[in-house]
Target: Penicillin-binding protein 2
Amino acid sequence: MSAEPSIIFSDPNERQGSFLRRTFVLGGLTTLGGLALTGRLAQLQVFQAQEYATLASNNQFNFRLVPPPRGRILDRHGVVIAGNRPSFRVLVVRDETKDLDQTLDLLGRLLPDTLERRRSIIRDVNAAPRFSPVPVKSDLTWEEFARVNLYANELPGVMADMNEARFYPFGGSFAHVIGYVAKPNDRDIKAIEERGEDVPQILYNPGFRIGRQGVEKAFDSDLRGEAGGNRVEVDARGRVVAEDIGGSRPAIPGKDVVLTLDADVQNRALEVFGDESGACVVMDIRNGDILCMVSAPSFDANLFVGGVPSKVYRALSDYERKPLLDKTLNGVFHPGSTFKMTTALAILDAGVDPTERVVCTGGYRYGSRVFRCWEHGGHGAQDMHNAIKNSCDVYFYHMANRAGVDRIQETAKKIGFMQTFDIGVGNQKPGSVPSRAWKAHYNRNNPNPESRVWFPGETLSVAIGQGDVNVTALQLAVMTSRIANAQKAVVPRLIKSVGGVERPSGAAVADLPFPREHLEIVRQGMIAVANDRSGTAYRQSQLGLGDIQMAGKTGTAQVSSYDRRKSRKSDVWALKDHNLFVAFAPIDAPRYAVAVIVEHGGKGGATAGAPRAREVMRTTLLKDPEMLARIQRPLPPEALAPEAPEGVEAGAAPEDPVAATAVPAPEPAAAAPAPAGPQPYLQAPPQ
Model:
């Protein structure tokens, strides 16, 4: 019988030991994992609990910026000329719409005019941050607002609310000086980045507006204020479900800017221009305050707040009378005979005796040319006083080179030309008054050396405000103010205060660098222009305000060189002369100065500019309590103004230029060669 097979273990505990080792390893790893997990939980729940609680809260709540109310712009008496008003609007939130195109189609049935701007609306919606409402239309009527709310359930992502919109209550009266507001664009963002500054997040808000042009642009940072914000609770998709009132922050309104302008004077100035084109500036000669700064024709700045339609903007920009151009600061014109006061001061500075007489026979021969006076028959013997009163061109032709073009330019700078002024707004042109150095620099790239040489014959045109003399309406007002003040070189001031902080007065300046007696000679000439029966603007300068009288000076600026085929009396607007008038009043105690430019206004200097300046001056004086009290005093019989003479109005334009050889004129004091290079006008404009 065979033996049974058997298994013999050398170590009965070997299997049991192997099991225990594996159990120990796995248990150790489990324990380490548990300890690590416990430690991490402790770190998250104990040591970093506050940090992650904050992050979780931020995921639950969003802080949405709210544009602040823009600061107001007021006139000197506190009248609001740029403010804010309630406005109904409709908005679209892209992320809450099922189909943006379908939503805009439905909205277009309720608000048909949104269809015309569909492309720009889609562009704005796509550029906006997620869940940010984008204005589709502002200034809804009550009917439109009710209609949108009635169909709100059928328009997911569309809402209607009320906000504040910029408003200009006087429409176009202040459009150029105030400017307007508009949405920030890519150029604005890029300009900030190029300056190395951080772009404020509020600029990305679809409802935010920044200043464009004028005071709105120059003081944009003061007018903006500080943005507030609403802390809202959102769901996982970012939709607003509630507002955290305690976490919201109110917006801080912008600062108020007070101007020196007077709303009544400003409105009257634009009114008297009617359909004409030009500019008007009124200054207080005592402190430089600008009471009026009007450019005509104007435009309604309210059109630009919500975005002006392209066809409207194109119509404004293409119109030949340029309503978008600020003609008070950025438009330059030949001053014509209004420049003769500057020339007179230069002549006096050269030592010329103001009583010296020049015989005007209607023309002045210089070399082979005859420069015509506006009065064909001549003025006869003229001293400086009568030459200013009668605006005699021949007198100034004859005396021009006694002063010289360099002295005339130097005098022009001292009286207010060839410069811009720190009035708070830019976009000013300095204009030009030529000199020998000016011409050499201006023609520095011309290969012809004669083009850089100044010829004495060119000085004749400069003396009467033609040729290369170009000025702005503001500069003419400054010149008139300094002559009327006769002591201080007053500078204009437009900004009265910002945020309640007063700006410096324009009277805190140096004295004028002219002898008082020289200024008095010029002033007396201006007084005669408006108050002597034979003055060029007598009938147009009578204020009819008691014993208050106005002094002035007419001017007509030729805009092109005429020949017999182009009459200066053409009905074509662009061929007519510019018409100018400057004045101050009262003559016995000067207080206000006015400068009026009527672009292509007509023939004589008194026909368009003077009547408008008179009406603006009347309004200015009537707004002054002291002047009003003086006007209301009984007028003594001896102070009554004489009746205006009958007959042809002084300063009428000559019909056509006359050949130089046909008009006899006195020879210049010293023989001179015929002028070369750029030739001055043969025909002097009427005054």
